[in-house]
Specification:
Distance between the termini of chain A: 25 Å
Strand order of the largest sheet of chain A: 1-8-7-6-2
CATH class of chain A: Alpha Beta
Radius of gyration of chain A: 19 Å
Helix content of chain A: 25-40%
Number of strands of chain A: 20
Number of domains of chain A: 1
CATH architecture of chain A: 5-stranded Propeller
Structural class of chain A: alpha/beta
Largest interface: A-B, 20 and 21 residues
Oligomer: homodimer
Chain lengths: 366, 366
């Protein structure tokens, strides 16, 4: 595999939107017992259900440690490809590559520096060396050349519309636990170079208590050019209210790369949801890893869905709100089937379906 | 990945000859210190040289443990694909899949039971569980369906001409440390079913002191339909003399699947070669692993070469005999470039270039 010294923008590459055509999807198999309760068996069932749902719409590959290979192979459908790949945890959105394509249909990957969402300051575990190798290991298997970006970023910290616009948050990208040496202007310039965008829309904070430090992919996402889904609450006493209201204001004032105003689609959040004592009791303690305790509020949002070729796979959490969220996604993705998967177990680890998936765009000349 | 209950022959599949067209080649990265001296660094240089030579003629993928990933990536050429894959040692000819194709250009893989060349009786190390997973891990990455053969076999124990003939040895296939429950007739029938051949030609013993228990791929191989290369010596005091003479007799008496007589091409062996005290001193001792000692005779043979699409890659051992072997291979493979690589370091582990490679046939309708 070749590592290229240039940048995607200079070479004519851009990150396509998630709703553009995919060649497939990558996931990683969860196993670490200081993230996942009860030997990770409940969350493995949830990951298998997500993989099964996505693989009804596009090919899925799951990377798994040598020790869990047989188990993952047995729990996943035959049509899912299972390959040995070690990692520190299972968040391929964040440690995997961000794929970029050019107008001739060629594909490459951007390998961001990964520091476990905050390095030695706020990182969720130590070490994260295997996670930081995931992007290049995926690129080796896909046969795509690699850009090694010279700054810390996770895939979940950015969304694009595929037409020149990037959506992100100040809370995450300007946090000194990522790139303390870089200014806001520097970061905008790097996003332009590595994602091939021209416009960066900054929202403020991410979802309340999101342990990634405010990833955009829990808060809001493009559903098509000019359209953004935003997690929402009508409860003014909930700290999420002010966060979502501020995001809404910024989105209403914004213009995308083509000069369009954005239409914002509010999707009411579930819960609030909290970790139970029983759930917390099943999680190992480990020095250097984030402690997970009974009563912790979970950063639940319906916006953390995955858009596959023929289906949208969304988390189900809460009978009170699931139906409205599903109806909203059906309206926003009228050509796709919307599949819900019960993923409270994934949420207990701090993320959801978008965080555990990474799309591989199809090589098509445009 | 799908595991198929049928057999290749029943489904219309056959093993192509090594000299048919390839999609690429697999290797595994050597690291175990009770096989390879001096931290495996000298043999890693030899493997890298072999990978470089083959990759001038076809794509090469190298499987490597998580711990050696960075090192293998750094020591191998960029054009070689490096993927994480754990194993117990580096003999992909023996633990990897044997690929089969059908007339419509479809490809599948046979995953033989692997027992480290003799199981708890004569096996060269314990355990061998990761080796036995290699075939299916390769098939997952290649996207090919799998037959799990119900008996012990290594890829190095059989050669085929691609036209219905299999060449093997009694010493290896009839050894009770492989399949004590199977008769010679049973084994012939299984080779017909799993390799898609109609005729099995049995030679007697393999190369003198070959620790695999007499693999055909050190002794003899097809170089084209009707033509066999055979390792040879003119030294009547060498135990190899009687082995090669007997093989020659059997080959002269044999008819292949199409009723042809075989032309035998003798290639004089190097040496005899022996492990030095310095070499032996660099190898770890490990309970359950074969002990390697100063003065051990090494099973050196020029027949253990690899046929790639555009090149043949052969071992170089010994100035006295290398030139004659290379000239012979040039005559036998007139459309390919013959490249020699100094692989004494591989030989110290008990095999050579053919043992550390596994071809992936190209999917072409015939």
């Amino acid at each position: 595999m070749r590592t290229i010294k240039s940048t995607p923008a200079r070479d004519g590459y851009r990150m396509p939107a998630e709703y553009e055509r995919h060649a497939g999807c990558w996931m990683l198999w969860p196993e670490r017992q200081d993230t996942w309760r009860a030997g990770a068996k409940p969350v493995q069932a949830a990951f298998a259900a997500v993989a099964a749902a996505i693989s009804s719409g596009e090919p899925v590959t799951v990377g798994v440690s040598a020790g869990q290979f047989h188990n993952a192979r047995a729990r996943l459908p035959d049509r899912v490809r299972v390959v040995e790949m070690s990692s520190n945890d299972a968040w391929v959105r964040d440690c995997g590559p961000t794929f970029v394509v050019d107008a001739r249909g060629r594909r490459r990957g951007v390998d961001w520096i990964f520091n476990a969402w905050g390095g030695l300051q706020d990182g969720l575990y130590f070490p994260w060396d295997r996670d930081d190798d995931v992007a290049r290991k995926i690129l080796e298997i896909e046969g795509d050349s690699r850009y090694r970006a010279p700054f810390v970023l996770e895939g979940g910290a950015v969304h694009v519309d595929g037409q020149g616009t990037c959506l992100t948050t100040e809370e995450c990208l300007l946090n000194p636990n990522r790139n303390p040496q870089l200014t806001r202007t520097d970061i905008e310039e790097l996003l332009r170079r590595y994602l091939g965008v021209s416009t960066v829309i900054w929202l403020g904070k991410g979802v309340h208590l999101d342990e990634t430090g405010g990833h955009i992919d829990e808060l809001a996402c493009f559903t098509s050019p000019g359209h953004v889904a935003l997690t929402w609450t009508e409860d003014r006493r909930d700290p999420q209210y002010e966060i979502s209201r501020d995001a809404h204001e910024r989105l209403r004032r914004a213009r995308d790369a083509r000069g369009r105003r954005l239409t914002v689609h509010k999707i009411h959040q579930p819960g609030p949801m909290f970790m139970t004592a029983d759930e917390a009791a099943g999680i190992d303690r480990h020095d250097g890893s984030r402690e997970r305790s009974a009563g912790d509020r979970l950063p639940a949002s319906y916006v953390n869905f995955y858009v596959a070729n023929k289906v949208v796979v969304m988390p189900l959490y809460d009978k009170r709100w699931d139906g409205a969220a599903m109806r909203a996604l059906r309206r926003l993705f009228p050509t796709r089937k919307v599949l819900g998967v019960a993923t409270r177990e994934v949420l207990l680890g701090g993320g959801n379906i978008h965080c555990i998936t990474q799309q591989v765009p199809r090589r098509v000349a445009s």
